[in-house]
């Protein structure tokens, strides 16, 4: 058609504009499908010349990059420390993570720990049961502390660095650090007794323990263990007898302390809790590097032992943090911030009455001590299944006091309990319920696909609308996020170490011995992922 020739205009369309998809009707060229435009991403330095044609997003861009907003596709950045210190979006640097197993609770927490490590924040995993965080801490050059039957000891009477710190401090700072160490040791001994008995010690026994610890510190040179505390109770010194109110009768004192003595004997004699707490600490915690307490060797059937070890790790870790901050306040050490991860919270809370108070005392001062914290559990029902009503209310307070609540897929039955603490719209509830649906079956491969809610989370802060985000892993993160590594085995049943190449392919690079945690060479340099099923490529 020449320039002078013009295509005739339909009179019915004269003076009108086409719709976003074209002209409707026959011959109008209306499109039922619009292909998404190409998308490029760049930093503000690279694309600053495009302003004002670049548009911002409603999702916060402060903190660790978590993933893409499910609704808008924009990048979502989030972590409790950055949102507390830099963005001022929350008043408490803590978060509570809820979600059914297998949907990625540990994955999003690892992503935050990895990003915060880049900001100079030390990740502290105070009890890793699966383990989910060991590979991450090793990749960061951190310290792995193994605990379990025959695999390590943790002395609950060990003041850690408190004794050395007290010598470097003066005045009220020294008194405060000594009082904190004393109170933490007494709390931990009482907590172990609570787990042994499934109920807390009475007021008189608490007073006896308090005085016995003071006598022990005066008598003992070095670091005492529980056996030494038991000996003080059995020796019946006058100061302990006075607080026991034995009225001058040694026989009455023996009757008063009989139950306490029996509980202490159980802790040092290899009872239900074994000998983990009866000897000196094998691997003291270092405060200048990331740390993980690997307790994965404790069997899931030993619920009391798991709860006791987790609580001991929490107490030990928070005590070390308190010492580090006291030295920093005095100008003797550089200021460090820590990201503390408390996984499987429900295991400790269910171990016995009164343990909610112990956990509550450990976790209340995180804001004043420069500590960000992540508490992880499955559902609200885990927290509300405690026997005592006062324990249930305090456990619910863990979620209420958290600066942010991150929810994965949850069943419909959880919504009433959850919305009492975290206001949610019906649309947000439906989203969480949809994410917990089981995986579909792929007829092409004959295998189950990934669950629809894996990696999807809703970030809630107070009554604000939640931000739905999908956590996508990079190739570098896939290896340290393999929580099913025990299923990756060769023909001989030994676990294989698999690395992900930049192109996304996976290759076996080593083999773990069932008896030795050290990494062995792979059984065959050409062995690849097919070794998962014992079939050669």
UniProtKB/TrEMBL annotation:
Compositional bias of kind Low complexity: 526-537
Region described as Disordered: 1-27, 514-537
UniProt-listed Gene3D superfamilies: P-loop containing nucleotide triphosphate hydrolases
Protein name: ATP/GTP-binding protein
Organism: Kribbella solani
């Amino acid at each position: 058609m020449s320039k002078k020739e013009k295509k005739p205009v339909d009179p019915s369309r004269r003076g009108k504009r086409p719709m976003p998809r074209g002209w409707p009707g026959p011959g109008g060229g209306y499109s039922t499908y619009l292909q998404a435009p190409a998308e490029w991403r760049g930093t503000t330095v690279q694309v600053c010349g495009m302003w004002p044609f670049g548009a911002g997003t409603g999702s916060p861009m402060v903190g660790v990059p978590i993933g893409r907003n499910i609704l808008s596709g924009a990048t979502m950045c989030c972590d409790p420390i950055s949102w507390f210190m830099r963005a001022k979006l929350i008043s408490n640097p803590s978060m509570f993570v809820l979600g059914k197993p297998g949907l990625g609770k540990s994955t999003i927490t690892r992503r935050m720990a990895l990003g915060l490590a880049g900001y100079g924040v030390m990740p502290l995993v105070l009890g890793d049961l699966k383990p989910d965080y060991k590979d991450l801490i090793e990749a960061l050059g951190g310290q792995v502390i193994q605990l379990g039957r025959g695999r390590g000891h943790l002395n609950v009477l060990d003041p850690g660095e408190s004794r050395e710190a007290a010598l470097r401090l003066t005045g009220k700072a020294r008194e405060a650090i000594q009082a904190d160490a004393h109170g933490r040791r007494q709390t931990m001994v009482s907590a172990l007794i609570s787990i042994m008995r499934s109920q807390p010690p009475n007021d008189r026994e608490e007073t006896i323990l308090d005085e016995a610890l003071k006598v022990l510190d005066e008598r003992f040179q070095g670091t005492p263990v529980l056996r030494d505390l038991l000996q003080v109770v059995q020796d019946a010194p006058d100061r302990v007898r006075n607080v026991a109110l034995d009225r001058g009768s040694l026989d009455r004192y023996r009757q008063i302390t009989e139950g306490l003595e029996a509980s202490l004997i159980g802790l040092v004699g290899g009872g239900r809790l074994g000998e983990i707490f009866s000897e000196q600490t094998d691997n003291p915690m270092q405060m200048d590097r990331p740390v993980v307490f690997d307790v994965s060797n404790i069997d899931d059937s030993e619920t009391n032992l798991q709860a006791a070890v987790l609580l001991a790790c929490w107490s030990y870790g928070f005590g070390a943090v308190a010492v580090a901050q006291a030295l920093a306040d005095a100008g003797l050490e550089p200021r460090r911030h820590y990201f503390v991860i408390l996984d499987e919270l429900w295991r400790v809370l269910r171990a016995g009455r009164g343990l909610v108070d112990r956990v509550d005392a450990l976790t209340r001062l995180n804001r004043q001590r420069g500590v960000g914290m992540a508490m992880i559990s499955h559902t609200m029902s885990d927290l509300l299944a405690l026997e005592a009503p006062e324990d249930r209310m305090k456990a619910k307070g863990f979620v209420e006091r958290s600066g942010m609540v991150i929810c994965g897929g949850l069943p419909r039955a959880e919504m009433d309990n959850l919305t009492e603490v975290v206001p949610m719209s019906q649309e947000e509830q439906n989203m969480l319920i949809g994410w917990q649906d089981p995986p579909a079956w792929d007829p092409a491969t004959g295998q189950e696909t990934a669950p629809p809610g894996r990696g999807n989370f809703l970030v809630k802060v107070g009554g604000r609308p939640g931000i739905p985000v999908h956590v996508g892993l990079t190739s570098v993160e896939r290896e340290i996020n393999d929580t099913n590594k025990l299923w990756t085995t060769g023909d001989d049943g030994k676990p294989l170490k698999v690395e992900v190449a930049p192109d996304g392919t996976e290759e076996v690079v080593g083999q773990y011995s069932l008896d030795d945690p050290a990494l062995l060479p792979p059984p065959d340099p050409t062995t690849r992922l097919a070794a998962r099923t014992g079939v050669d490529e």
